[in-house]
Design brief:
Elements lengths: L1 H20 L11 E5 L4 E3 L3 E3 L1 E5 L7 E5 L5 E5 L4 E4 L3 E9 L6 E9 L8 E5 L4 E3 L3 E3 L1 E5 L7 E5 L5 E3 L4 E4 L3 E9 L6 E9 L7 E5 L3 E3 L3 E3 L1 E5 L7 E5 L5 E3 L4 E4 L3 E9 L6 E9 L13 E7 L19 H14 L2 E7 L8 H12 L7 E5 L3 H6 L7 H7 L6 H6 L1 E2 L2 E2 L14 E6 H7 L4 H6 L5 H14 L10 H11 L5 E2 L4 E2 L4 H15 L13 H4 L5 E5 L20 E4 L14 E3 L3 E5 L11 H21 L5 H10 L5 H9 L5 E3 L2 H4 L3 H14 L3 H5 L2 H13 L1
Length: 722
């Protein structure tokens, strides 16, 4: 008996040892089957459903990938967790596949039912008042009854020459008169309501605040919102607040920081009239789980930039001067590994001459499928040509997929054309936002004992009247020289923009040539001309009197400074010194209210017409580039030594010798930027030669000269942004 017991004990112990040895390395056994568990088999359009899977044996590796047989009916929200969402009515299969063995699958059929609405019975429409000022906007509020009916409505103005109405019910006053706005229920065109609206002369009272920005963001991320205070010309300053600071906070510059999943309402309230505000709901999604990046097989992503300016885009160039150099180098190296690719910045070939010829060259290359670059450095002036010629991709879908809503509203507007998005992320971090400005010969300030205009701006003494006084006094102190040079049209546009007014407003689709700030700016410039303050009025960088050192100011673009092909570092000899001052702002403004403009200048486009090898697509190129921007932002945010103001100051001092100019640059963060496509809708040569020059130089009637251009610009604006 004792011997039998001993034999049984030894056998059992041996089995135990063998069993343990099978898992001695901690490796789970391979699955032999996988099964889906679904809480229900039917969902409604827009509804999400969490599926789960179980493997056999139970202790086997349970990692799987979820796919849909028809993404147009059921989309996979999370391919790793099995979260799905109904997209359209129909039936589709959801498949789960083991990562350990792709032959091990299970599938389940899910039915997606349409949303069932009750039949509409009536509709109501209301507005805050029956009047709206020229250039101002007012929002219609509608309700379809019963509440369970579909709420979609359409809007129409009986007289769009007096007032227009957008697809979202935003009324814009265009000219004096009256019109009837009709609201029609989409589900039953026989049901409608009408409101009579009277357009009156403009008012400087705050009427509305409109927030622009994305409606979704991810946990742990940041998002830039912007607020426009209407009508154009009132103070643009707002107070930001969050409905729940445990979900998301918002800074005084409109930067939202997501703390956890949920929904939060961000409100912007006018500082001039605290009864006027706008609210913006943001849904915060879970932090994006790790993803598998595509293998591009060593593909070389090529960017084309202007000859001699490759260093502005390549962080590995020795001349790259920006504060994000180390972070961007790290980001580029990471993307090269993650995507198994290379990134190279090259100069455009000689035949791609700058300007419209370069745009036409890109179109020709794309249309013959001979495009040479994946990413092209282009300008907003070429957008229409490039889009109409199918030379750059519409990236809106990919931006929504990979961009994490990081593009600021003004930057996004600059790349928008007929509902598409044609620019790539340029920089996810704040930085220098000045594009146009007034640049000056700093040497002449010393020679004639003139006060720094940048210091006047920094001290809050740079209104239209301050500017006029400075120009007249400087002219009196500089016999034989002049104060102003360059094209008057650019001074005029910059001065209007400094008042927070877009000459071509893509939000309200209005042209603001007759705005009081536009008229006042023209009057100031006319006064400077009458008092002989002007030198050469050359285009671009070509004013001879400025280049020869005989004029103090010239209007230009930020990148002109120290550029060998614009204003080189030795323009006035070895001791050449430059300065910068923003455009002056209206007399009823203060410094805090002024704005600078993003005119749709230099940006990145995703070139079309490339012959990609297998495994490489335009979408993957977009994804890889976007990751370089997002990772650069991430690494900068983790760098405790990085100081944004110091970075801007250092970049400014690399170009300007007047330290006050660098401080003026720091003032214009992203919340101080507006978008005005005035100079990119069409060449401004005609309006300059036939309207602004005669007004400033010849004293011609302002309204008479500009009125013929209003319908031209309005049609162009509507075509691009309507």
């Amino acid at each position: 008996m004792r011997k039998v017991f001993y034999v049984l004990f030894v056998a059992a112990f041996a089995i135990l040892i063998i069993g343990c040895d099978g898992d001695k390395n901690g490796k789970k056994p391979a699955p032999t089957a996988i099964e889906i568990t679904a809480p229900k088999m039917e969902i409604t359009v827009g509804e999400q459903l969490q599926l789960s899977s179980a493997v056999t044996p139970k202790n086997a590796e349970n990692k799987a990938v979820w796919t849909s047989s028809d993404e147009e009916i059921i989309k996979i929200v999370n391919k790793d967790t099995g979260l799905v969402e109904g997209v359209a009515a129909g039936t589709a299969e959801v498949i789960v596949t083991s990562k350990a063995d792709s032959k091990i699958q299970d599938r389940v059929e899910i039915k997606v039912n349409p949303i069932v609405y009750d039949a509409p019975e009536s509709v109501t429409a209301s507005v805050p008042r029956e009047t709206v000022s020229i250039g101002s906007v007012m929002q219609i509020t509608t309700s379809v009854f019963p509440a369970t009916a579909e709420q979609k409505v359409e809007y129409k103005s009986s007289n769009p020459e007096v007032a227009t109405v957008s697809a979202t019910g935003l009324i814009t006053g265009v000219a004096l008169g009256e019109t009837e706005i009709t609201v029609t229920v989409v589900a039953d065109k026989e049901i409608f309501a009408s409101i009579r609206i009277y357009v009156i002369s403009g008012s400087m009272n705050v009427e509305a605040v409109v927030i622009q920005g994305e409606a979704e963001m991810f946990e742990g991320g940041t998002l830039q919102l912007s607020a426009s205070v209407l009508p154009a010309g009132v103070s643009q300053n707002v107070l930001w607040s969050s409905s729940d600071e445990t979900v998301a906070t918002v800074s005084d510059k409109g930067v939202v920081t997501a703390l956890k999943q949920g929904s939060v309402t961000i409100t912007a309230t006018s500082v001039e009239d605290k009864t006027v505000s706008d609210s913006h709901v943001i849904v915060i999604k879970p932090e994006i789980p790790p993803v598998e990046y595509p293998n591009l097989g060593g593909y070389e992503i090529i960017m084309y930039a202007s000859t001699g300016y490759e260093w502005e885009h390549d962080p590995f160039e020795s001349d790259y001067k920006f504060a994000d150099k180390v972070a961007k180098q790290r980001a580029w190296n990471d993307v090269k590994q993650l995507f198994n690719c290379d990134i190279k910045v090259e100069a455009y070939p000689e035949e791609a001459v700058w300007g419209e010829p370069r745009a036409e060259w890109l179109v020709q290359k794309a249309q013959t499928n001979e495009a040479e670059a994946d990413i092209v450095v282009i300008t907003g002036l070429w957008t229409k040509t490039l889009v109409d010629g199918n030379a750059i991709h519409d990236t809106l879908e990919w931006y929504n997929k990979y961009g994490k809503h990081k593009m600021p509203p003004a930057e996004k507007a600059a790349g928008t054309y007929r509902g598409g998005l044609y620019n790539l992320l340029y920089s996810a971090t704040d930085g220098i936002n000045v594009y146009y400005g007034i640049f000056y010969n700093y040497n002449l300030l010393d020679d004639y004992g003139l006060e720094s205009p940048a210091k006047l701006f920094n001290d809050g003494r740079w209104s239209y009247s301050d500017f006029l006084e400075y120009v007249l006094q400087a002219q009196a102190q500089m016999p034989g020289k002049t104060v102003l040079s360059g094209k008057p049209v650019l001074y005029w546009a910059g001065m209007v923009n400094a008042g927070g007014v877009a000459l071509a407003d893509s939000l309200t689709l209005s042209i603001n040539f007759n705005h009081s700030y536009a008229i006042a700016a023209a009057q100031v410039l006319r006064e400077t001309y009458v008092n002989d303050c002007w030198g050469d009025q050359g285009w671009d960088h070509e004013s001879t009197s400025f280049r020869d050192g005989n004029t103090l100011f010239s209007v230009g673009e930020f990148w002109f400074i120290n550029s060998d092909i614009r204003w080189p570092a030795d323009l006035w000899g070895d001791d050449t010194s430059f300065g910068f001052v923003p455009f002056p702002y209206p007399d009823n403004f203060d410094k805090e209210s002024t704005r600078t403009v993003n005119l749709g200048g230099q940006y990145y486009g995703l070139g079309a017409g490339r012959n990609y090898p297998a495994g490489v697509t335009a979408e993957y190129i977009y994804w890889a580039w976007t990751e370089t921007i997002l990772l650069t932002e991430k690494y900068l945010s983790e760098d405790v030594t990085y100081d944004l103001d110091a970075a801007i100051r250092n970049e400014g001092l690399a170009r300007f010798d007047d330290p006050d100019s660098a401080e003026a640059l720091i003032f214009f963060k992203k919340d101080k930027v507006i978008f005005d496509p005035f100079t990119s809708l069409t060449s401004y040569v005609n309006i300059s030669n036939d309207a602004i020059d005669p007004i400033i130089n010849g004293g011609s009637d302002y309204l008479q000269m500009l009125t013929p251009f209003e319908p031209i610009y309005r049609n162009l604006l509507t075509d691009m942004y309507g």
